[in-house]
């Protein structure tokens, strides 16, 4: 059973982070040329950026050497200064424009791959995992790829390139002490920022958790407004809400205080570094080993390096969050599908369409057996119904037939072919289903009808709607087939949704039909109308009907009665009544219930 992802220990987390970062490379490879060009633009932008203090130094030295009385503007240097400023901006923007395709294409590819993988995972996974959680993981995971690339290309790599260029200039043109001061200051700054950010992240996590909790409490109390009023518990709800906000307030104050500590500490480190640089540079100017332009240069380098470092705490925290989100998505991608096509599996060769269950055992969990030795055959064109109390295993038969799960023992055959040995796509193409609860896409009626066979023509779709006796209703709507059905089809009644499901099944043209309690949630009048439609659709099809109301299957060629995962009786409606067994008891109970109603 899938469980929520737990926080891992630090060493394991680091290994996972590197593993996930390597996992991103295939999504970038398609546009590797663009990525390389963007990196070249990044380097050129930083070369121009580092060149600006060098030209500024020369401007200061020229003006200092010329003296105040005969001051001459160094026009060429000023133009070079402007050109470097322009080049820095140009190459930065060019990098952004070129890399946009790489970044957003990687997001698109990852999103598509994750959705494809989710469709490959088993029904068990989707029943046990919250759809909302999967949606959030998908959204946050793909966004994390964009964030990581963003921080790498626009924050981390530029910083490293600039450090490298500054290091080369300081080492080759000035005393070693300037390099040592600059990079010692940077190292202390980075270490301090990481340590304090890691420490204060606990307060941010606490704030986020308490904020979500208080929001949930307020919404819960408002959703249950009547219940609160019934019991006069307004004060209880307010006290609970305020208690959570009091904890949030404490965490928020600590978060802000720690932020002030972080900012002050960073300012102190920068001030100490700049002061030391200025002290040694001023000493060099006095001693004659450095010019005033050199003093301006090393000071400019120092300040220029710390401009991006001001955002280091934010970048570090966001990278940590993004890596955690990315881990969720890559763990999802590493999850193996429970149901796979065997290597070289052929497509199903559909001939007559007979279905055979041979000694089928099945359990969702090892300690919970659902089916026990189920044996039956549905011959071509035959209608077989399965009835029984809730939990008897009726709907499980349909899930196994579609191969949403593999049988624990025994096998299921279609035209003498084990469905476990053929491709899932060909198997499901041969079977049509009208489910108990028809869920529609939040799109038009036409889209939902065409879902049965997307390549169908409009004439075929309208013909299927006519066969399902819903064409007249659709034509009566102001927008006809272009009418939006709403979330999960909520704008339509149960009967209308069921007819759309029937039309979809007709349009699919399957040889085998499954009706899984297709009318159990409908009123009697609508149920009778739908039943007539189902009879028309089932003609000349191999049909499996899973039913709760026995009155809906009295015309079946054969009825199987299930109890505790076993077939305990089978025969026609008349034969089963004559045996006066479980079916007879169920029939009498339902007749009494209908009579009372």
Q: Any overview of this molecule?
A:
This protein is of the alpha/beta class and about 600 residues long. It has four domains: about 1-170 and about 320-340, ABC transporter type 1, transmembrane domain (ABC transporter transmembrane region fold); about 175-290; about 355-430 and about 510-595, 3-Layer(aba) Sandwich (Rossmann fold), CATH 3.40.50.300; about 440-500, no CATH class. It has 19 helices and ten strands. The protein has helices spanning about 10-30, 30-65, 75-120, 125-130, 130-175, 175-225, 225-230, 235-285, 290-310, 310-335, 395-400, 425-430, 445-450, 460-465, 470-475, 495-510, 525-540, 575-580, 580-595; strands at about 355-365, 370-380, 385-390, 410-415, 415-420, 430-435, 510-515, 540-545, 560-565, 565-570. The strands form two sheets. Strands 6-7-8-3-9-10 form a six-stranded mixed β-sheet, sandwiched between helices. The protein has a four-stranded antiparallel β-sheet with strand order 2-1-4-5, covered by helices on one side. Helix 17 links the parallel strand 7 (about 510-515) and strand 8 (about 540-545). The longest helix has about 55 residues, at about 235-285. The chain is elongated and about 120 Å long.
